[in-house]
Amino acid sequence: MPNVTEYLSARSTDPELTDLISAICTCCTGIAGQLQLGALTGILGALEDTNIQGETQKQLDVIANDNLKEALLKLPIVAGIASEEEDLPVAGNPEGRFLILFDPLDGSSNIDVNVSVGTIFSVLEVPAGMNGGEERAYLQAGRKQLAAGYVLYGPATTLVLTTGSGVQQYCLDNNGEFIQTASAMTIPTDTKEFAINMANQRFWQPEMQSYVAGLLAGSDGERGKNFNMRWIAAMVTDVHRILTRGGIFSYPWDNRDPAKPGKLRLMYEGNPMSYLVEQAGGLATTCYGNILDMQPTKIHQRVAVALGSKNEIEVLLDAHKGALESDAAKLNV
Ligand code: AFP
């Protein structure tokens, strides 16, 4: 099977985009190595700092961020980067073409308990007349992504990628190469599996509460079938399961903290995952509108997310129908 560079080149992918993806792969191979040895090299655990989101940073969050930042900003094709761990975008080459947005280590609270985590990335083109140090250059709808993907650090290190022609999966081999293991990942349209943090149930909107109540009622309720639940507390891992065998994942709007109506970030979590899911035949929504059509207003913007198997997301959207007009504005999603 081809490695990622061979596959992209054989499909006449933009050579600069192919080079960029190769560089991301090389960097993530290094991060995989550091994760494997983290307990031995003393880089597990939290730092005293918090990031701009007010969240505790793990040492490996910062290490992964620094690795990606350094590797990408070295490339002449990179105009700038934006990261969950950086307050502001960082400018690269003023002549560069690409803006790369990333969550260097999604699910990092899993690291200390040796559960899967991942790097999520999104690639945009810098608009004419702007540079990669300006936030406004990055504020483009998810539909404009040139590529999106993640590297999952699990039992295997796996790259899942779209450049707009389906979704491919690759596995890291012993020679440091990502070898293709699936050329067209497809999300089954129906499912009996859902992923949501049930501990937040009382904070959700009534529509989400009643939809999930239907899942829990199973064969005793209107849905007439039993559902199973999975929650890994790393979006990257939950989405990987969905891309592999179907299901739905949601981190919905909630009213725990009015300043944070959604937990996930649009630009480097919601958008890249939504692009992958749509390219694999699934749907991605805020419950009030398509995520990929949202016009972002800031780099660290939060968003309500529900994505996965098409028919099940349609049931979820149906449950929100009455709320569409009024709540979409109220929830700012
Ligand atoms: P961390 O990267 O801070 O661990 O957050 C991961 C995440 O943003 C997302 O990947 C998970 O789906 C979600 O948080 C888990 O949130 P809960 O803490 O509510 O389970």
Automatic annotation (TrEMBL):
GO MF annotation list: fructose 1,6-bisphosphate 1-phosphatase activity; magnesium ion binding
Cellular location(s): Cytoplasm
Highest taxon listed in the record's lineage: Bacteria
Domain Fructose-1-6-bisphosphatase class 1 C-terminal: 187-319
Enzyme Commission no: 3.1.3.11
Residues holding substrate: 106-109, 197, 263
Domain Fructose-1-6-bisphosphatase class I N-terminal span(s) in chain numbering: 12-181
Pathway: Carbohydrate biosynthesis
GO cellular component terms listed in the entry, alphabetical order: cytosol
Catalytic activity line of the entry: beta-D-fructose 1,6-bisphosphate + H2O = beta-D-fructose 6-phosphate + phosphate
Manner of cofactor binding, per the entry note: Binds 2 magnesium ions per subunit.
InterPro entries listed in its UniProt record: FBPase_C_dom (IPR044015), FBPase_class-1 (IPR000146), FBPase_N (IPR033391), FBPtase (IPR028343)
SUPFAM superfamilies: Carbohydrate phosphatase (SSF56655)
Key words of the record: Carbohydrate metabolism, Cytoplasm, Hydrolase, Magnesium, Metal-binding
Binding positions (Mg(2+) 2): 103, 106, 269
NCBIfam families per the UniProt record, alphabetical: PRK09293.1-3
Family statement: Belongs to the FBPase class 1 family.
PANTHER family: FRUCTOSE-1,6-BISPHOSPHATASE-RELATED, SEDOHEPTULOSE-1,7-BISPHOSPHATASE, CHLOROPLASTIC
Entry protein name: Fructose-1,6-bisphosphatase class 1
Gene designation per UniProt: fbp
